[in-house]
Amino acid sequence: MSKFVFSSPRKYVQGAGVLAELGTWLKELGDSAFLIADDIVWGLVGEQVQNTLKQSDIQQHYEKFNGEASGSEITRLANAARQQGSVVVVGLGGGKTLDTAKAVADELQSPVAIVPTAASTDAPCSALSVIYSESGVFESYRFYSKNPDLVLVDTWVCAQAPVRLFASGIADGLATYVEAQAVLRSHGKSMVNGDPTIAGMAIARACEETLLTWGYSAWTAVAQKRVTPAVEAVVEANTLLSGLGFENAGLAGAHAIHNGFTAIEGDIHHLTHGEKVAYGTLTQMVLEQRPDEEIARYIRFYRAINMPTTLAEMHLENESWENMVRIGALANSEGDTLKNLNPGLTPETVANAILAVDAFSQSVK
After folding, report:
1. Which residues are involved in binding glycerol (predicted)?
2. 226 φ, ψ to 5°?
3. CATH number for the domain running over 163-363
């Protein structure tokens, strides 16, 4: 029997300068905040966050995020939040910080507010976290009973971040509809364990249309640290549309292959989440035998925003066949989503597709 589930944040707020309103929005959730951010992010926005919370009479405690969304880091921060008696958990920063904040809030059964400082992933809106080992190897997805209570995105702050992160968010977002179509076709389940909803598919489609229509002009604006209407549209696509799309329509090959890349060591781990997802998206397209021109269109777009489309750009040009198969094996693990693309894929088939992307990309003019 079909079961349709649609999940979303309680409230989403976006605009240039809205970080100054964080205290006002947080006041709806509680009067004591536990703030999680890494040193870099805290140096950029910490003073402004402290001021807006003070103006709303919200008590606050800041704790440094150590860089990995691991079980030990989640436990450490949850214990610190308990000692402080904080009511609301607030994550500020990038994907791993935000995933960790969601996990800490789940441990405490507390409201959580998510404040991305770059439009670099679709993590902010979802009711799940990607959990890694302390050395950065993918371990599992952790699911929650609810989405964040507040997602607040200051587009001016996001536009001040490196343009590489903005492009990475576009690449992450472009996987959304590609994967959603595979889930729908295979009668797979979404990330909220339902059949893909009409709304989820429509949002995923709108995400792709927005990114392919305005992604390049928005990228050029952010390179100059400007906020334009195109930037606002793409930030919404990177964050809200991609988040709602992947959660309610599902994941398939692109993100599974991204996770597979964690099976090996090397310079690939200096790449961003979105850069690895971009290559994973192309690999999925090869595996599902999409038309050459459709794959070429994605390759040309990725090149325009400096996303990797070759093994050399992925730092994989010297990897052994055995390591390529290891990537395919981890992508194909039981707890991941490659089965939504094709349950019959083997590690060797995935490895061949990874190599085929490189050859085809080099032929595209």
Report:
1. 122, 172, 255, 273
2. -105, 150
3. 1.20.1090.10
Domain ranges of the chain: 12-159, 163-363
**Does 358 show up as a binding residue in the annotation?**
no
Q: Binding residue per annotation — 161?
A: no
210 labelled ligand-binding: no
The pLDDT tens digits for 238-270 are: 999 999 999 999 999 999 999 999 999 999 999
Indicate which residue of 172, 195, 336, 358 is catalytic.
172
**132 assigned binding-site residue:** yes
Active site residue 273: yes
Q: Which residues contact 215 (CB under 8 A, 6 or more apart)?
A: 170, 234, 301, 305
CATH architecture for the domain at 12-159: 3-Layer(aba) Sandwich (3.40)
Listed as ranges, residues in the chain with pLDDT below 50 are: none
Reported as type and span, the H/E element at residue 217 is helix 198-223
The catalytically annotated residue of 154, 195, 258, 358 is 258
Structure confidence by residue, pLDDT tens digits, 215-233: 999 999 999 999 999 999 9
pTM tops 0.90, yes or no: yes
315 annotated active-site? no
